[in-house]
Structures are given as C-alpha cells and as structure tokens.
Amino acid sequence: MITKPVNQKAWFLILPVLVCVAFSAILPLMTVVNYSVQDIISPERRVFVGTEWFASVMRDSDLHAALWRQLIYSSSVLVIEIPLGIALALSMPASGWKSSAVLVVVALSLLIPWNVVGTIWQIFGRADIGLLGATLQAMGFDYSYTGNATHAWLTVLAMDVWHWTPLVALLGFAGLRSIPDAYYQAARIDGASKFAVFRYVQLPKMRGVLMIAVLLRFMDSFMIYTEPFVLTGGGPGNATTFLSQYLTQKAVGQFDLGPAAAFSLIYFLIILLLCFILYNWMQRVGTASLEGTPP
Q1: How far are the Cα atoms of 63, 118, 227 from residue 267, in angstroms, in the given order?
Q2: What is the pLDDT of residue 294?
C-alpha cells in the first residue's frame, strides 16, 4: 500500500504567530527568569543567587497584605458585577432600534481609557467640585477617598463596577440572543414562570459566556493597576495598594530588579493557579446543575 506524502508547508502559515509570541511573551519571560536568579549590581556585574529572591519575596509581610487585599477585591468584583451584569442583560431590549441604542449606551464606559477612568472618578469624588463627593458631604457623610481607607476602597470598587459591568452585560446579552425561540415557546406551553425560564432555560444556555465573563473579570481585576494608581495612588497608607502596585514599587520605585522579577513570576503563577481552580470549579458546578446533582 502506497502512502501519500503529507504536505507540511501549512505549518509555515503559523510561523508569523510563533514569531510574534516569541518576541512579545517568551523572550520577555525568559529575561524575567534570568533576572530572578541573579543579583544585578550594575549592568556589567551580576551575581547568581539561585532561589534567594523567591524566598525573600515569600517572607515579605507587605506581599501577604497586598495579596489578601487583592483576593478580597477580586472576589467583591465578581460577587457584584456578575449578578448585576446578568440583570442588566435581561432588562435590555431584544431587538429593534431600542436594542441598538441601549447597546451603544451600555458600551460607552468600555471605550474610556483606564487612566481617564481614574481621572474621572478622582474629580467625581472630590468634595469641593465632584458630584459624588459634594452630594455625600451635603447628606452629612464625611466622605474622603484620600483620607479614609474604607472610603478609598469602596470608591475603587465602585469605579470598577461602573467601568466593567457593561462587559458582563454585553456578554450576557449575546448569550441570551443565541437561545432559540423554541425553548421559550416550550416554556410558555408548560406555563413556566419568568424565574423558571431564567433558572432552567436562560441561565444554563448562558453558562459558556458567563464562564468567559467570570474569567476575564477575575484576571483583569487581579491585575488592576492604572485606575487605583490614578485615583488614590495606593493610599491612604496601603489601603488600595494591590499586587501590581506592589510589583511596580519593587521594580521602579526601589529598583530591586531581582526581587521584582521573582515576584512577577510568583504573581503569574498565582493568577494561573487561581484561574485554573476557578475554571474547573465552574465546569463542575455547570455539569452538576445540568445533571441535577450536587456539585
């Protein structure tokens, strides 16, 4: 039996992608790995230190505090934005010019650059000229996102909810529009309530897009930097200093390239591990809900 030779030239089509990935991801990553095991005394002098920087970073109490703040913040983002985005998607018109108009309005906040979002909320929260700050002051609240740690935390959280909930809503809206009308017709024939339609038709069919929304929002919130940096600068104190700002302080503020490189690798592994755990948990919960068994 004669075997026809296989043409391997198609692999050349992905060569540009491999080159781009190598320059944008692999080579920088290897550089960071190189820095993480060396003490860079000067551009000409480097001393190999092995895992010393990793051990030093893991013992840093500031890192532990920043990680704890980051976990609470990312969890709060998911708890607020996912249900709010689903509710917004359910309330949006399904078709017609109203649907197009609402989609444009909802997506407006996503078009604003991150540093501009921080500046907007910086002005918005000021007690002298900002609508939010002046209103709260007039109502008797001693609001100050620059002087009160709780106020700063809540302001950063509200800013993120305002900025990124529309992304969840748009993904949820796309998931709702992909559901065939036959499911709704069967639900009407069975006399299902609105909650029953949501529980047994809409929510299961939205599971794929909601999984994407959860992962995107978790990863993005876990890497947040620009908005809180512009709004509060990480303060007051370290109240809004998250992991990305901690890394920047190490690399740029203190110019500790070795510890900063070691922490960036730890940071990457933390995000990778948490996303893996979250993805598998959502898969198990989704499968269990479809089968009617406990997750």
Answers
A1: 10, 24, 19
A2: 47
Structure tokens, 74: 């990312």
For position 161, what pLDDT does the model report?
Answer: 94
What residues in the chain have per-residue pLDDT under 50? 293-295
Could you tell me which residues come within 8 angstroms of residue 277 by beta carbon, excluding any fewer than 6 positions away?
A: none
Q: Say if residue 28 is preceded by a cis peptide, omega within 30 of 0.
A: no
Asked if 235 contacts 7 with a C-beta cutoff of 8 angstroms, the reply is no
What is the topology classification, in CATH, of domain 64-289? MetI-like fold (1.10.3720)
Give me the residue spans of the domains in the chain: 64-289
Q: What would the two tokens of residue 201 be? A: 């038709």
- 241 secondary structure, DSSP code: -
pLDDT of residue 81: 94
Burial class (CB in 10 A: 0-12, 13-18, 19+), 259: buried
d(CA 6, CA 10): 10
What is the spatial distance between Cα 63 and Cα 238, in angstroms, rounded to a whole number? Answer: 11
